[in-house]
Amino acid sequence: MEKQFQKKLKAFGVRLKTLRKAKGLSQLDIEIECGINRTEVSRIENGQKNIELHTIFKLATALEIEIKDFFS
């Protein structure tokens, strides 16, 4: 089960990075927009940090997308 969870975290991170780059935003832009330290953004994108729903909401707002877009 732990391996599945890590795989999902990594997939979420890849999706975040893809969406962020598609919007032309840097990790620093995300930090400024929603107050999530760019080191934390990097850890999320690399699947190294478990992410809370509140943080997902902040990221979606910064990227001007809906939360569901992370999972499609």
Tell me about this structure:
The structure is a single chain. The chain has one domain (2-71): 434 Repressor (Amino-terminal Domain) (Orthogonal Bundle). It has four helices and no strands. It has helices at 2-22, 27-34, 38-45, 53-63. Helix 2 crosses helix 3. The longest helix is centred in the first third of the chain and has 21 residues, at 2-22. It is globular and about 35 Å long. The two termini are 22 Å apart. The relative contact order is 0.19.
- Please report the distance between the alpha carbons of the first and last residues: 22 Å
Strand coverage percent: under 5%
In CATH, the architecture is Orthogonal Bundle
Largest sheet: none
Q: Please give the share of residues in helix.
A: 55-70%
Mean pLDDT score, rounded?
95
H-E order: HHHH
The strand count comes to 0
Number of spatially distinct domains: 1
**CATH homologous superfamily, by name?**
lambda repressor-like DNA-binding domains
CATH fold-level label: 434 Repressor (Amino-terminal Domain)
Put simply, the count of helices is 4
Low-confidence stretches: none
Question: What is this structure's SSE topology?
Answer:
Layout: H1 2-22, H2 27-34, H3 38-45, H4 53-63
Helix pairs in contact: 2-3
Keywords:
67% helix, 434 Repressor (Amino-terminal Domain), mainly alpha
